[in-house]
Amino acid sequence: MPLKSLADQATTYRVRFCIGLLAVCILAPLAARDSARALSTMYNAPALWLPEDMPVRKQYDDFSKLFQGQDVLMIGWDGAKIGAEEVDQAAEALLPLTQPTSDRPAYLEGVSSGQRVFDVLTSPPTSFSERATRARLKGSLVGEDGEQTIVLATFSETGNLNRQEVLAQARQLVSDKIGVPEEEIYTAGPPTDGALVDAEAQGSIDRFTLPSVIVGALICVFCLRSIVLTAIIIIVAVIGQGMSLAMVLYSGIEMNAILIVLPPLVFVLTASAGIHLCNYYRDAMCSDPNIDPTAATRQAMQAGILPCWLAATTTIIGLGSLGLVRLVPVSAFGFIAAGSVFGTLLLLLLLLPGAMQWHGKRHRIKHRAALAKSNQDDNDPLPVEKWRSKVGHAWEAFAAQFMKFPVIVVALFTIITGVAASGLPQLTTSVNIPRMFPENSRIRTDYAWFEEHIGPTINAEVVVQFPPDSMPDPIDRFRLVRDVDDHLRSTDLVGGVFSARSFLPSPPSKKSRSIRSTVLEANIRKQLEDPDSPLQDAGYIAKDKKGNQLWRISFRFPFDEAIDYRTEFQRVQAEVIPILEEAGQGISPQFTGGVPMTTESQDVLLQDLFRSFLAAFGIVAIIMMLLLRSFTGGLVAMFPNLFPTITLFGTMGLLETPLDIGSVMTASVALGIAVDGTIHFLTKFQSQSRKGKARTEASLAALHKCGPAMWQTTAVCAISPLVYGLSDFQPTQRFAFMMFGLLLAALVGDVLLLPALLASPLGRFLTPKAPKQKASTTR
């Protein structure tokens, strides 16, 4: 197909620019409006991130429907003692939040306190002694001293959706009522956890997005030496950031701590594509000082469009592979980010050619004016070429030192990768909310107060399920629940045990036939069957749709990063199950609550992370094989792309640093980004090889051409997100540092390892085969 004339090509680029400008005008208001709307839906509930069809999630949902107490806020202060008036006053201060108003439903379903439960248990019909009551409530509602207690507020669905506001109101109401400063009122529980994560996640975007964009723009201007080209890249990147958040809103998903890293990621990927395209244009401009800007633009698009689309495809595959992760926010993150990469690349391809033309004309005018003023030859190199030439030669000289000993360099990188890979089996994940905050944060301080003054805070549940035809006598059922309760109370690292056992006296032995035993049994039976009894009102016995009676036993573990909650929970399971199996009659336990939901989320996260990475690796490797037309070559080319991920993640395993929700997505993302540089490098390398250059010479020439684009994209894409590292919110901070480390390692892999591979014996698998010469015949 014949090339268009330069005039026709210029017209085409102008038309595309106008189309792109129209798209910007349409998308910019949508991005601004709907990104703000998306952020207003911020709601973090890690327990609900698991798919609804998973057994552990289904058990948790069923449990939440049948029992109260999953969204309970614990409120405490140093003067909250059994018998102190301030405890009842604080509970009364919260009662207005239990009432609906003209503009909102009730925020709280109920308010209670350790004092109220204490009063119930020391009054008829139970009439426990104060000493016995303190012992029953110790670790759950009363501290080890038997005096310290807390206030409880159960959130309604509306209250949970507005938990930041409700938490602030609750603290203020209690503070005003009892005269204790708000900073000395401590809170814990799911509402506090969610409210603080929501606030920090929102704050990370509000505080660091604009500074990150400014840093990226300044670095981009320095690298490209063009305000026009930088402006196009930054505008598209910012619109991409906004639209990625808007897509969260359109998908019907609530914003959360995982999705907040979408904006910096989209910015990074957009800037990377734009810088590579601009460097192809710079190459064309530098190849001939008198080249027409339209011709330079056409040359740049012809050379750059294929590798840019290939690089974008590998990135989209890396992001799309996160769709295999069963945690809903992570899979949504992958699909939305992949769509954003595709959309921003289309916008860049529409806008950049027109901007390149405009920039080229202005640059030529300035250049000729400068030459005329200095009486220099018109064929002198452009100023930008001098600068790029120095950088290119620096890259060549640096890499050439390593290419002198390619086998040693490849062996060294192989050893480093192998040592790091030994840490991958030790890699762990964490979705523990307090760990998302620094040691001196409010949530850590509050949890430490409750651990010291009340008891353990990490919740778990055992639900004993009695089929309709098993143990028809409720007293027998209570005896079995009492046995489980007593066993849990004597188990190491378990505290805060609370069940029907806390409300009722211990039943007499079955063999006892005394009048006292008969009266005691009758009293217990009445409370078990009376729907208005304190036990029934507390919601520790329920019935499911199948008619099974469910008895709830709550317990807690201490908050301690040294504790392996999975192991401890499995130990509890191993001790409880035999007690129920011995009872027989189809009686079975269900284990749920915060601990199993957290451990299951961590297991799913790690398993699916591995699966998604393998899927991305497999697909990207196939693309590399097709690009190189060599099975072995495709595998060899993947080594520099595996180096960053294996090295950083393996090192985290060796250092026993867990992956959190901010860093877990970076493995597949890093693979996609690392392949970008490899594709651009190999494209140039193969082009030089087809011109007859030897592998080492072709590799140095490719580095001369691609080196500036590689370090420029690394500078913009690694340093601009590093601004988020200033956040106190650990997932955001970890994401920034992980992206910086992965991109830096990817640069090292592409600049040092890849040229060494090409110069080594393995390089022959990456070198295009010379076309076969047709044999000439003479007659």
UniProtKB/TrEMBL annotation:
Pfam family, one: MMPL
Membrane transport protein MMPL domain residues: 119-372, 578-776
GO cellular component labels: plasma membrane
InterPro entries: MMPL_dom, Mycobact_MmpL
Origin superkingdom: Bacteria
Alphabetical keyword list: Cell membrane, Membrane, Transmembrane, Transmembrane helix
Entry membrane topology: Multi-pass membrane protein
Transmembrane segments: 13-32, 213-239, 259-282, 303-324, 330-352, 405-424, 609-628, 635-655, 661-683, 735-758
Keyword Transmembrane: yes
Cellular localization per UniProt: Cell membrane
PANTHER family per the UniProt record, alphabetical: BLR2997 PROTEIN, MEMBRANE PROTEIN MJ1562-RELATED
Name of this protein: Integral membrane protein
